[in-house]
């Protein structure tokens, strides 16, 4: 827990002013509770983060040696202190919420994220009235080639005010709607915390460069919702740098989150404007029980869709948006990481309707090694890029992971029986046809 409470916050009593979702909580210090399907890393020290980076580098090398156009997955909580991800996530969420509040004041409540456009003049007046910045000070924020050309400011223009060139400890003040007080977006970092943040970014950079050299695509895994805004933002910065010619860096979107579609559409639009290749892995999500328990106990809105059906709808909606983008620009790429046969069939049908050929390799599929081979093999035989996700590590760490996967996929045994029946039918067919060693 000590690694999740900033020294500056202790000194200033700042932890109490943090939003509930983005505070470190003793009861959830061990992030394995309620997580049945994901690897969890804990921060020990910087040397341990370097060890994790070396493991990821070896994994990239192994992927390069075993397949063309391979993938390697990394987790950002393995590469630095989670406290930074908590704090930066809070910054991004507050900043976005502030935009939505101003949009509501301009009569745009309820619109989709990308349809909200603030009039620059009114925005500058609002910032001046709130005492955040004078009109003269804020005028230069929304000028230049891409900002405010139309006299309006959208969410992407707004987000660009917090970019990789902004020193986090000098971020703007925003109003706390509960207290009516102006507060800094982020409590100041100590010098050591600033260094920890920079080391995390350096490790990400090292991995991205190795992946580019080796021709391996790097998938940044999604994690808990209170880390995810920062993880996505840092991944976006890597995409801007490394995805100029092809999609090397892939972000992961968890479709059980209520905000998944907004997140996907905003990031795709940014890739359009800036001209880089959008890369994503779509998953349903791995932290549901823990997320719900944490939200209920601590007292903030549950970030998860209310039903499995709603999550399915969200998955297909996000996927359809990306497939449409592939059709129109050919600069988007998606891994459909799913064991759900209906989702795979949906993807195949939409690819056919949109004229996306498997040989373009813009759409690929992923299943876990040892699971759902009845989906994987026919896809591969039909010419679709399909990958097996391979867990690795010491036996005592990998076996619990695999058992949790079996628990997560409650229909696993049913599918295993079906797979066994299919194999038995194929075995008998080949035996009777006299072509035991050949499918033809």
Can you tag this structure with a few keywords?
440 residues; 11 strands; FAD-linked_oxidoreductase-like; two-stranded antiparallel ribbon; mitochondrion; TIM Barrel; 15 helices; alpha/beta; seven-stranded parallel sheet
Q: What is the CATH topology of the largest domain?
A: TIM Barrel
- The CATH architecture of the largest domain can be given as Alpha-Beta Barrel
How would you classify the quaternary structure? single chain
The overall pLDDT, averaged over residues, is 80
Radius of gyration: 23 Å
The succession of helices and strands, N to C, reads HHEHEHHEHEEHEHEHEHHEHEHEHH
Distance between the termini: 59 Å
Main sheet summary: 7 strands, parallel
Q: Count the DSSP helices.
A: 15
- Percent strand equals 5-15%
Largest sheet strand order: 1-6-7-8-9-10-11
How many separate domains? Answer: 2
Q: Total strand count, please?
A: 11
- As residue ranges, the low-confidence spans are 1-17
- Dominant shape: globular
Fraction of residues in H or I helices: 40-55%
The CATH class assignment of the largest domain is Alpha Beta
What does this structure look like?
This protein has helices at 7-12, 46-66, 82-105, 120-129, 135-139, 155-159, 191-214, 228-242, 260-274, 288-298, 308-329, 341-354, 373-381, 395-408, 412-433, and strands spanning 71-74, 117-119, 152-154, 173-175, 182-184, 217-220, 249-254, 278-283, 332-337, 363-368, 386-389. The chain has 440 residues and is an alpha/beta fold. The protein has 2 domains: 41-82 and 201-409, Alpha-Beta Barrel (TIM Barrel); 95-188. The strands form 3 sheets. Strands 1-6-7-8-9-10-11 form a 7-stranded parallel β-sheet. Strands 2-3 form a two-stranded antiparallel sheet. Helix 9 (260-274) links the parallel strand 7 (249-254) and strand 8. Helix 2 (46-66) runs parallel beside helix 7 and helix 9 packs parallel to helix 11 (308-329). The longest helix is centred in the N-terminal third of the chain and has 24 residues, at 82-105. It starts with 6 loop residues before the first helix and ends in a 7-residue tail after the last helix.
């Amino acid at each position: 827990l000590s690694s999740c409470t900033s020294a500056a916050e202790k000194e200033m009593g700042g932890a109490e002013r943090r939003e509930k979702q983005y505070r470190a909580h003793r009861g959830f210090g061990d992030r394995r509770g309620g997580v049945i399907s994901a690897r969890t890393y804990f921060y020990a020290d910087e040397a341990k983060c370097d060890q994790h980076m070396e493991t990821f580098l070896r994994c990239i090398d192994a992927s390069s040696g075993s397949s063309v156009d391979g993938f390697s997955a990394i987790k950002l909580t393995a590469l630095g202190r989670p406290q930074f991800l908590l704090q930066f996530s809070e910054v991004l969420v507050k900043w976005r919420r502030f935009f939505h509040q101003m949009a509501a004041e301009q009569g745009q409540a309820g619109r989709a994220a990308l349809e909200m456009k603030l009039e620059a003049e009114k925005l500058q007046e609002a910032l001046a009235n709130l005492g955040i910045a004078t009109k003269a000070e804020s005028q230069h924020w929304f000028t230049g080639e891409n900002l405010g050309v139309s006299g309006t400011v959208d969410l992407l223009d707004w987000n660009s005010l917090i970019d990789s060139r902004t020193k986090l400890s000098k971020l703007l003040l925003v109003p706390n709607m509960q207290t009516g007080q102006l507060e800094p977006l982020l409590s100041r970092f100590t010098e050591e915390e600033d260094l920890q943040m920079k080391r995390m970014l350096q490790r990400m950079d090292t991995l991205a460069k190795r992946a580019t050299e080796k021709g391996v695509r790097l998938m940044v895994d999604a994690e808990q919702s209170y880390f995810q805004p920062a993880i996505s933002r840092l991944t976006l910065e890597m995409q801007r740098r490394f995805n100029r010619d092809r999609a090397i860096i892939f972000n992961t979107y968890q479709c059980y989150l209520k905000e998944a579609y907004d997140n996907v559409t905003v990031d795709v639009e940014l890739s359009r404007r800036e001209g880089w290749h959008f890369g994503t892995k779509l998953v349903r999500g791995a932290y549901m029980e823990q997320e719900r328990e944490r939200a209920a106990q601590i007292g903030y809105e549950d970030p998860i869709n209310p039903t499995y059906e709603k999550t399915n709808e969200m998955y297909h909606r996000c996927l359809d948006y990306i497939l449409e983008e592939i059709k129109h620009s050919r600069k988007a790429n998606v891994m459909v990481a799913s064991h759900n046969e209906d989702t795979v069939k949906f993807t195949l049908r939409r690819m056919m309707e949109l004229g996306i050929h498997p040989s373009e390799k813009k759409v690929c599929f992923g299943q876990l090694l040892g699971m759902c081979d009845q989906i994987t093999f026919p896809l591969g035989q039909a010419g679709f890029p399909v990958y097996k996700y391979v867990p690795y590590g010491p036996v005592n760490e990998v076996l619990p992971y695999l058992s949790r996967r079996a628990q997560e996929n409650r229909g696993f045994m049913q599918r295993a029986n079906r797979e066994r029946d299919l194999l038995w039918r194929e075995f008998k067919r080949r035996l009777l046809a006299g072509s035991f060693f050949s499918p033809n």
